[in-house]
Amino acid sequence: MIRGASIAAAIAIVSFAATADARPASQGWYTEGGAGAVAFLPKTNKDAALGPGLGVRIGYDLFSFFSVGISLGASSHEATVPAPPSGEWFQLYRGAADARIGGRFDRLALFIEGGIGAAMISSNILMKVGITDPGQRFSVAFQAGAGGEYQLENRHYAIGLGVDGVMMPSFKPPGGSPAIALDTRLYLRYTY
């Protein structure tokens, strides 16, 4: 009887200790802020250079494996169109409603995400090569991507790396497919 109680107590202590070491992540409202680079894929990349990008995401974890959110991003690119003009830059602004599905493996989490929104180019410089039409600056934007994050010691913080492809059907080179930009970012996440 005492031996059975001792074994049960030992199992309970080991189970409690294992649970305490798991460092559960917070769940609920969260924000992410990140920086990285945005590159256009061929054929658009010959007229728009790789550029720095910034992004934010605000969302809510509906379940431990599913969240919804709003993402905003901006990047700056040198227009590498034939001269004149030369040395021109343009900005690409994006906003989308999205969803994220993922799973946590102790301190690491992996996810896939996708959404729909809008994109805006700040200048008409790409009109010269036919990527945009006269007066056209907006496009619907479809995005999909994946990433991973590492849960820090404080359960509210995580750092992550994400990669999203953004397809903008209204922006396309002549005879080409829609412009696609690849957004790679390193981010910090805070869950309230």
Topology:
Blueprint: H1 2-21, E1 29-40, E2 51-63, E3 66-78, E4 89-105, E5 108-121, E6 138-151, E7 157-168, E8 179-191
Antiparallel strand pairs: 1-2, 1-8, 2-3, 3-4, 4-5, 5-6, 6-7, 7-8
Give average pLDDT, whole number: 90
- With strands numbered from the N-terminus, the spatial order across the biggest sheet is 1-2-3-4-5-6-7-8
Helix content bin: 10-25%
Radius of gyration computed on alpha carbons = 22 Å
Q: What is the number of helical segments per DSSP (H or I, 4+ residues)?
A: 1
Shape: elongated
Portion in beta strands: over 45%
Low-confidence stretches: 16-21
Main pleated-sheet profile: 8 strands, antiparallel, barrel
| Secondary structural class | mainly beta
What is the distance, rounded to the nearest whole angstrom, between the alpha carbons of the first and last residues?
A: 47 Å
The count of DSSP E runs of length 2 or more, i.e. the number of strands, is 8
What do these coordinates show?
By secondary structure, this protein is mostly beta strands. The chain is 10% helix and 56% strand. An 8-stranded antiparallel beta barrel has the order 1-2-3-4-5-6-7-8. The chain is elongated, with a radius of gyration of 22 Å. The N and C termini lie far apart (47 Å).
Can you summarize this structure?
The chain is mainly beta and 192 residues long. It has one helix at residues 2-21; strands at 29-40, 51-63, 66-78, 89-105, 108-121, 138-151, 157-168, 179-191. The longest helix is centred in the first third of the chain and has 20 residues, at 2-21.
